[in-house]
Amino acid sequence: MPSTSGERIIGKVMADIPPNHVSRYEWAARELVKRLEPGSLVLDAACGCGYGSFILANVGFRVECFDLSAEAELYQQNFHHERVKFRRDSVLNIWGDYRTYDAVVSIETIEHVDEKWIKDIGRMTDVMIGTVPNQDVVPFDAENYPWHLKHYTKAEVIELMEGWWCSDWATQYAKWEDYEMVPGDDGMTLGWVGHKS
Fold first, then answer.
1. What's the pLDDT band for 43 if we cut at 50, 70, 90?
2. Which of 44, 104, 150, 169 is placed for a possible disulfide with 65 were both Cys, Cβ 3.0 to 4.6 Å?
3. Could you give the strand order of the β-sheet that contains 182-183, starting from the edge strand earlier in sequence?
4. Cβ–Cβ < 8 Å for 18, 9
């Protein structure tokens, strides 16, 4: 079974990662393959132990990934890939370097941070793929979700992504069974593909 640090999923091999989390990155990888050339540069924001960056690299992308956690840095070695560059830092600290990316992937991050974060990340790319807990199905409760600041309805995601066009929506219905990301917006997870308008 996986361990967590806060809500950061930590594992030594892919089998340690819950299938619903793996499915989110596999969906993001499929969506990026439709839109980007092999070798494109992708930012994996708040990457945790790196399993998602590993998935993105396995389909041919170069990946820069960031996480603040020392535990995440320790586990990065388990998901090493030659096309992945890990940095123990907040992704917000790279503004001085001002990088641009072919795409940004933000899987289960936005509910943990100030909404200004997504606006800042959005300056770095024209394509963003993200997921959040669906408020209509998994209502936010600080006692049950102490690491979250809020959950989002589809309308709130659209408002959050002001200046972007959300072209595709995907969802998950459960954690361990029926966990694949499928087209839709009525499950426990909301996923979207955003393009700058």
1. very high
2. 44
3. 84-88, 62-67, 41-45, 103-107, 127-133, 189-196, 164-172, 182-183
4. yes
